[in-house]
Amino acid sequence: MQKSTIQFSLINCFLAIVLISCGSVTKNYIPKKLDKTSYEVPYFSDSKTDYVYKTNITVYGNEISGIFIAKKINDTVHRIVFTTEFGNKLLDFEISDNSFKVNSIVSELDRKILVNTLKEDFRLLLKKEYLVQEQFENDSDEIYKSKDGKRDNYLFISKKDHKLEKVVHSSKTKENFTLIFSSENNIFAEKIQIIHQNIKLKIELNYFKSE
Fold first, then answer.
1. Rounded to whole angstroms, how far apart are CA atoms 126 and 90?
2. Which residues cross the membrane (predicted)?
3. pTM for this structure?
4. How far is Cα of residue 190 from the mean position of the Cα atoms in its chain?
């Protein structure tokens, strides 16, 4: 219980800090003609698979660890459960592009700013398809730009092996957060990082290999 209390106190540090960011969206991509109007993400797409990851969350230099489980429950909705390493449930969400439901959450985590941040992180992590409006390239990647309300997503697809390696979520003037995928076969992501540019928050997911 003492360890849990210490971990939850770190959340208060995250909630109390005024969020200030700077910088701009990188513009040194080379425009090119669209070769597709949509991109379907291969990760988290199998409804028969429970996607289980050991999870480490770093908030302003402090760490929280646990187990992240994602399950596709229909064509549009994923269910997400985050537990302690001892199996105690911390949160239980259902999420899609257009819906969000909190099935349960412990009171220590039930803070609007934290829930909204995780909602946006996980929505993008589990997103099935992006509609593409513009295309760019750099030396190593094809880059697809997809509108996301008042913001944009930039998808980086490796020219070498055609894997989705990164998604950058940005406003018109700055990058907000980035998803980085490490995948051996472009079907399953063994390692995922969610890195925020405007706050000191990083989520790292490592595939849990059962013995």
1. 19
2. 6-26
3. 0.85
4. 14
